[in-house]
């Protein structure tokens, strides 16, 4: 049985992503498009469009065009969409990188994508220089000024921007990284059509008025930040207030001072808004709506936010490979539901044992089909074939059901990813690090519930020689990005495994729940 939501299908324009986004600039050239949280730097829509075109012209003059890759390694800053869309307008592909990733992770991503140019911020130039020494990156470009890097302003050139021949359905404009259902991070290939469909779906299910202000905290290197927060807001003519890093008091102060109307949050921030006494110190009366994503939002937390702030609060569901698949912002919505499918999206639920298609209120794996679904994984045809069916349905690795109203309820994750504050953490990767410790003979990692972070990684280890939990956690912390750190360790006599050697994570989850 194939499920579709109540929303009518919409036309996905056959055009390039940047021309689709910047159409707002022609209508509202004097409206503020981006501004940093301090109110010091930013662009009107007219300035944004001009900067994108001039930077694209400068990139073209450097020989950058179709088939080339530009890497973006930066926190959320007003110039981020300029660099992103300049590369896209020049016909290139943009790989967005997480500044918190390790040098080894960044090097691998740059080499896998074949990036030629890297754009960053002054504080990351030293790291970028060290990383690019092991890659084919030809030039480091920096927002502002920094020794050893080309100023982004030097890219801005007069003249007509390039007009490369782009096939929206085939040409890749964005590479994001995801662990998929298991394993190490893989490059997710998103075409111009994928990106257009994603932002169009967001604008239809969680619309913004043209005069609204969005606080851009979800990082632009993450699908939630790049697609929903940055590009969907620009498509609708809203103002983006960028925050390079999250700090509770600075966050609340920004809402008050910029009269923010829309928040995109991960559940961690929703808990702050629902429960923190800090909230009472600030005037948040400008808020109209909140959209939560990145991980499951507790219904009780959502209700507390709704009552305390007097706003509508909705929850979206998607994944890097297919964002904004389900969304419900308007009240009422059933507690725990992520809403019905977004426009142009089909869903089916498969029995995880037999593969049989299931009906209403039957739990199984969630599969999704639509124009927003990725083209595939970078340099990974076998992994692509495992998740993408020939008919276009994507295996999400999530367990859930659709009720009689067409709303999706997620029950569990078949896939093994841990969601720490909206960031994806692979247990397989952490297990490999644990196993490299000289005193660890076997290891397994699961995600355990945490009110603040949604989930935290917990390691179960079998040791040969005495070692403390603190020593093991410090060992892992030295080798992974901060958000991937193991937060708890439990010593165990034997890791439960299947006859073919796979870790029985459900046994460990059951052990965690019962305390035995």
TrEMBL record:
PROSITE patterns to which the protein is assigned, alphabetical: AMP_BINDING
Keyword annotations: Ligase
One Pfam family matching this protein: AMP-binding
AMP-dependent synthetase/ligase domain span: 23-378
Domain AMP-binding enzyme C-terminal: 429-502
Gene3D superfamilies in alphabetical order: 3.30.300.30, N-terminal domain of ligase-like
Top-level division of the source organism's lineage: Bacteria
Similarity section: Belongs to the ATP-dependent AMP-binding enzyme family.
Name of this chain's protein: AMP-binding protein
